[in-house]
Write a structure and sequence with these properties.
There is one protein chain. The protein has 57 residues and is an all-alpha fold. It contains 3 helices and no strands. The chain is elongated.
Amino acid sequence: MINEVISPTPSDVAWATEFLADFEARGQVIRDGSDLPRLGRARKIMTLATAFGVQPA
């Protein structure tokens, strides 16, 4: 039960995967102030997805 609550959803993992791929494709350049928080969130989601075995939707 606890793992279900703290693990990311497949749609979260899909978003993080797409964001990180886009970030990598544009040379890891921070475009504006919202990129850093989104980058941190995407990395955290991917770390949790790996730990809990969640695949993107």
